[in-house]
Amino acid sequence: MKNQYLFFVILSFISLLASGQKQCDIQKHYEDFITVGKETHNNRSYISKSVIEAPKKSCYSSVVNNCLDELNYILTNFTSNQNYQHILDFTDSLDMRKAFFEKLITDSTFNSIMLDFANKSINKSIPKDTITMSKLLNIAVKYFSIIKITDEGYYVGKICIGMNDIKKTEAVRQPFVEAFCFSSILKNCKKDEYGIYDEFMKNLKELYKVNLGIDKDEKLLRSQGALYFLMRNNEILNQLLRKEYDRQKDNLPFVLVDK
User: Fold this and answer.
1) What is the pLDDT of residues 17-50, one digit of tens each?
2) How far apart are CA 111 and CA 117, in angstroms?
């Protein structure tokens, strides 16, 4: 009996060691699924970076390939182009690529997010975050924007305009929650199944029923707040987010709960 118990303990210890060795260090594999180049627009050069499909059968490929849009959002919005500006001086594409990844591996913000993502979604070494539907909607509605009011008093809106509303309203950022909301809305923006664009336009028209101000700047601020609440209570947006979460939940670093 003692020998059997000792064998079991040794076997368990070996299994723990083996599982530790199999932990996926995603930071060592950036070059496998991130591409970088130089683009020119209106005679101005800029860095073009994006997440591409990872090689099959790697420790990270399944999760990365199912989160391409979300990771693109992270790469775009949580790395500062200003910190990589010197890379544009390289004329050789291989030298530029090498310099980019040398800089990326030292980017504390980006690496912190990617490490958190890997530990919760790939390695499962730490528990996933818990996000309520209420908090998810608080982020999602920020991608429905009124960008201006015309001289005639008409609202001009845009979906997924960028980060402005998030930066102005969220003191504590939740990068992957933002990425999930952004990509979910963008992927379904014009699809007939949800028609979220039509819901957005319907709610913009709803704002005309209330006089929200005489001063244009005050009116813009009030109308944006009102739009947030209209979209937050929109059943189509709720359904869209829930369906996308159910489709992606195995790959996401958070768990969605109703309360």
Assistant:
1) 444 447 899 999 999 999 998 888 888 888 889 9
2) 10
CA angle 170, 172, 175 (to 5 degrees): 90
Whether residue 1 has pLDDT greater than 60: no
Cα(165)–Cα(232) distance, integer angstroms: 15
Distance in Å from the first CA to the final CA of the chain: 49
Identify the burial level of 113 via C-beta atoms within 10 angstroms of its C-beta, where 0-12 means exposed, 13-18 middle and 19 or more buried: buried
Burial class (CB in 10 A: 0-12, 13-18, 19+), 173: middle
> To which H or E segment does residue 131 belong?
strand 129-132
C-alpha–C-alpha distance, residues 19 and 17, integer Å: 5
Q: 3-state class of 40 per DSSP?
A: strand
Residue 90 near residue 99 (C-beta atoms within 8 A): yes
- pLDDT, tens digit, for every residue of 129-140? 999 999 999 999
Look up the pTM and report it: 0.86
Q: Locate 224 and state its tokens.
A: 């944006």
Give me 18's structure tokens.
């083996």
- Compare 249 and 4 and report the one with higher pLDDT: 249
15 and 7 Cβ atoms separated by less than 8 Å: no
The type of residue at 193 is: E
Secondary structure of residue 2 in the 3-state scheme: helix
Per-residue pLDDT at 222: 96
Return the C-alpha torsion angle 87, 90, 96, 100, nearest 10. -20
Q: Measured in whole angstroms, how far is the alpha carbon of residue 227 from the centre of its chain? A: 22
